[in-house]
């Protein structure tokens, strides 16, 4: 991505000059703007979820600093490392979405240039200007890996917590046997620290699933634009075919031209008179 794209991708997408100009062109020429609006909305939705993920991690860092009961507990260091790892993943997603946004802006810019060169018909295939499917797939791949990583981390925390409490139950039962008390049948459920340790992963997974939902909608909106462009091409082809003369009409036209040439030929008498006048 060049420096110009980086600059143009900052700020609200709807306020970008190329995006606004393309909307104006479509509206002025009576073209449907719903497809373009859907693409813009999905990009903004992706940005919103990334911002939400960033804010959630900031909140967690503040909560860790305020929780007195874990200030000297090893779990605090674990949570700090967890949050740092998740911040890196969010930053990677943010960069991918920023590049996606820049590509949308570039597509709008190219569409405007095509309109100025070839006219409104150039915008019938609007989807072809947005070369973003590779970027969308990259985001989806990151989401799949991120969700899988969160699920594995939560599963490990839950397993460790259950084993810890199961061990605690066995120790308590040993004491109960020695003191003549009845044994404990069930282990204690996962405690507060386990829930605290898994909270960042659960929050991150929720944000990632939201991003994936918007990516899928983005791809669907692109497909819809492409289908509409194909329908327009088929409609024009059908219209052009209907305007072409049939074989019989072409034969009749040719026959009439032959008759007209025969009529316009000079007769022998007329040709003789013309020759005599020439002498």
Keywords for this entry:
279 residues; mainly alpha; 2 domains; 8 helices; elongated
Average of the residue pLDDT scores:
75
What is the succession of H and E elements? HHHHHHHH
Mind describing the biggest β-sheet? none
What's the tally of helices?
8
Helix and strand content put the structural class at mainly alpha
Low-confidence stretches: 1-7, 164-171, 173-178
| Assembly status | single chain
The fraction of residues assigned to DSSP E strands is under 5%
Q: How many beta-strand segments? A: 0
Radius of gyration in whole Å, from Cα? 36 Å
State the end-to-end CA separation: 85 Å
Shape: elongated
Q: Residue share in helices?
A: over 70%
The overall number of domains is: 2
Describe the structure.
With 279 residues, the protein is mainly α. It has two domains: 3-145 and 214-244, no CATH class; 248-279, no CATH class. Helices cover 80% and strands 0% of the residues. It contains eight helices and no strands. The chain has helices spanning 3-8, 17-28, 34-66, 74-118, 133-179, 192-243, 247-264, 268-278. The longest helix has 52 residues, at 192-243. The model is unreliable at 1-7, 164-171 and 173-178 (pLDDT under 50).
Present the secondary structure layout.
Blueprint: H1 3-8, H2 17-28, H3 34-66, H4 74-118, H5 133-179, H6 192-243, H7 247-264, H8 268-278
């Amino acid at each position: 991505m060049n420096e110009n794209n980086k600059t143009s991708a900052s700020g609200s997408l709807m306020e970008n000059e190329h995006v606004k100009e393309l909307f104006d062109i479509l509206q002025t020429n009576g073209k449907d703007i719903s497809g373009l609006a859907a693409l813009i909305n999905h990009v903004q939705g992706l940005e919103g979820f990334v911002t939400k993920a960033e804010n959630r991690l900031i909140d967690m860092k503040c909560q860790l600093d305020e929780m007195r009961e874990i200030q000297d507990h090893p779990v605090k260091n674990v949570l700090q490392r967890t949050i740092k790892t998740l911040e890196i993943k969010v930053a990677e997603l943010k960069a991918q979405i920023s590049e996606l946004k820049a590509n949308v802006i570039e597509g709008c810019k190219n569409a405007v240039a095509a309109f100025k060169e070839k006219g409104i018909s150039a915008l019938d295939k609007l989807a072809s200007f947005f070369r973003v499917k590779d970027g969308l797939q990259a985001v989806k791949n990151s989401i799949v890996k991120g969700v899988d990583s969160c699920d594995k981390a939560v599963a490990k925390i839950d397993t460790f917590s259950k084993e810890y409490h199961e061990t605690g139950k066995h120790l308590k039962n040993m004491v109960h046997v020695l003191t003549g008390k009845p044994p404990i049948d069930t282990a204690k459920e996962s405690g507060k620290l386990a829930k605290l340790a898994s909270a960042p992963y659960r929050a991150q997974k929720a944000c990632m699933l939201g991003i994936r939902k918007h990516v899928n909608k983005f791809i669907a909106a692109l497909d819809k634009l492409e289908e509409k462009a194909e329908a327009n091409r088929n409609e024009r082809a059908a219209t052009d075919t209907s305007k072409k003369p049939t074989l019989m009409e072409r034969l009749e036209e040719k026959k009439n031209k032959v008759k007209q040439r025969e009529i316009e030929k000079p007769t022998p008498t007329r040709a003789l008179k013309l020759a005599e006048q020439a002498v």
